[in-house]
Amino acid sequence: MSNTDTDTGVSQPDEDERTAERLTSAPAESDGPAGIGAFGWLRWTWRQLTSMRVALILLFLLSLAAVPGSLIPQNGQNAFKVQAWKAAHPTVAPVYQKLQLFDVYSSVWFSAIYILLFVSLAGCIIPRTWQFVGVLRAQPPAAPRNLTRMPVYAAWRTDADAVTVNAAAHRLLRGRRFRANLAEGSVASEKGYLREVGNLLFHLSLFALLAGFAWASLASGQGGKLVIEGQGYSNTMTQLDDFKGTAFYGSEDLDSFGFKLDNFTSRFQTSGDQVGSAREFTAHIRYWKGSDDSKLTKGDIEVNHPLEIGDSKVFLIGHGYAPVVTVKNAKGEVVYSGPTAFLPQDSNLTSTGVIKVSDYGFSEKDDKKVKMAFQGFFLPTAPANFDMSTGPRSLFPGDADPLLVLNAYVGPAGDSGLPENVYQLDSRGMTQLNQDGQIAKVKLKPGQGWTLPDNYGTVTFDGYKQWASFNVSHRPGNAVALTGAVCAILGLIGSLFVQRRRIWVRAVAMPDGTTLVELAGLARSESAKIAEELAELAVDLQDDAPALDEPDADEPDADQTDPDETDAAAAEAGPAPDATPDPAVPADPHSKE
C-alpha cells in the first residue's frame, strides 16, 4: 500500500506504516543467491541451510532415517541377532551391509543428517538471538503519522491538556506491563516479547535435546545381569551377562560397585477383571561402592524406580523363578546342586529352562564319561491335569501350586569349543532317555525326587527361588535431553499463546482549544485481544481525559435526515459499543493489518 504526496501527486510507500507492521525479530530470508560468483552462492546456501524450512526438513529426515534402526537388527544392540538375520536373508544382506543398515545410528548418512541439523539450528539461533537483543535494547517504534490506518483505532476530544493526556497514557501503559516511550507528543508501547523468547527457547532446547542424544550415544554404556536370591554381583565385565559400550565408554569405564540380592517381593492381583496383573515388584538388595564389599548399604529397586550408584543407574527389568535341583549319579555322589534360572514364556510366568550337568562322571551302562542335561518347565501355579494337546501351562503368575516338569538327555562328555546359551539345549549328539518304551519325563512337587532310567542316578526338586534381572545403565546425556525436551515444550507454548502487539497514543492540541486523543493498536496475528486492551485503555484514560459531548449544531435534525443516509452511516460505523461513556471511534473497515 502507498500514500500519495499532495504536492507532487506521486504515490510513495508509507515508511512509518511498514515499520509498524514489522513485529518479528527473525532475520529476513533470501529467495536467491545474495551475490555473484562463488561467494554469493555460498552466502545463499548458508541462508537456505539456516532457514526454518530446511531445519524442519532435516528434522523430518532424521526421524525417517531412524526407522530402519528400529526394524533391522543392529550390531551395537545384538550382534548375534544380526548374524541370524543375515543367515535368514542371504540375498539382501550384502546390500544392507553396504548401506550400513546394520549400523544405522553410526552410519555416514545418519551422521550427515545429524550434523547438518546441528549446523542449521546453530546458524538459525545465533543471528536470531542477536537480532532480538537489538530489539530489546531499542525503544518501541514511534507512532505512524496516520493512526486511522491501524486495524484497531479509537479517538475522542477532551478539554485536558495534551501533555497531561500523554503522561497519563504513558503511566497507564507502564502499569499494564507495556514497554512505553513518551516522545514527540505521543506514546509508543509494545508488549509480547515472550513470544520471541519462546521461539528462541524452543530452538535452543531442540539444540540441547540433540546435543544430549549425541552425548549419550558417544559416552554411554549398559549391561545386563540376572541375579538369583541370595547371590551377588560385581560390576565388572567378567560378571555381566551382556555389555554394550560406545566410543567413549568401554569396559574399563565401568563404575566400581556391587550388590547382593537378599530377596525379591512379587505380588499379583488375585481377583477381579485384572486377575494375575502385577501389583508389586521389589528387589531388596545390599550394595557397596568401590572395592570394599564389607560396607553394605540397604536399598530397594522397583520398576521405574532405579537405584543410583555412582554415575550408574540400576534398573529392575525382569523377574522369574529358579528351581533348586540336586542331581546324584549312580554312585550317590552329588554332581549338581543349586538354583537354575528358568525364563518366563507368558504373563502367567510359565517358564522354560535347562539344567546342564557337564561333570556327571562315568555311566554305569557303558562305563564312559558322559554329560547330562534336563530340559523342562516350571509352573508357579500348575493345573490339576494337562496333556500333550494343552501342554504345561501355568494358571497364575504367583507361586500358589508350583510344579517342575523335566525330561532327561545324556551324551558323550566333551567341549565343542563353541559358545552355548545357558538357557537353551543343543541336543545334537545327545540321546533322550526312555522309560517303559516312552520318553522319560516326570512331574515333581517341591521335595519329590525322580530315579532316572538306565541307572543314571536320581534328581530331587528341593524347592525354588526367585530371580531378578537388572540393567546397569550409564547415560550422561539423559538429564540434558530431558531438560531440553521440557524447555522446548515451554518455549512452544510461549510462541503459540503469547501475542506480540503495539499500542500508540497521541494527544494533539486542536485550534478550537480542545485536545484530540487518538489510540491505535497493531498485533502480529488476528485476535480480539488487542481490541480488548485498547478498549480498556480508552476507558481508563477517561479519568484523565474525559470525552466531550459533540455540539448539538453538528447533529442533523431527525426530521430532515434521509433514512437511507442514516442506515449507511450506521453500517459504516459498525456495531454499537457497550453501554459505557466511552465515545471511542471504531476501526476503519478498510484498514490494513
UniProtKB/TrEMBL annotation:
Chain intervals with Acidic residues compositional bias: 541-567
Residue stretches of biased makeup (Polar residues): 1-11
Name the record gives this protein: Cytochrome c biogenesis protein ResB
Xref: InterPro entries: Cyt_c_bgen_Ccs1/CcsB/ResB (IPR023494), ResB-like_domain (IPR007816)
Keyword match Transmembrane helix: yes
UniProt KW Secreted keyword: no
Keywords: Cytochrome c-type biogenesis, Membrane, Transmembrane, Transmembrane helix
Domain ResB-like residue range list: 52-534
Composition bias, Low complexity: 568-577
Segments crossing the lipid bilayer: 54-72, 108-127, 200-218, 479-498
Pfam families found in the cross-reference section: ResB (PF05140)
Ranges in coiled-coil conformation: none
Record's bilayer topology term: Multi-pass membrane protein
The organism of origin for this protein: Kitasatospora herbaricolor
Compartments (UniProt record): Membrane
Ranges where the record places region Disordered: 1-31, 541-593
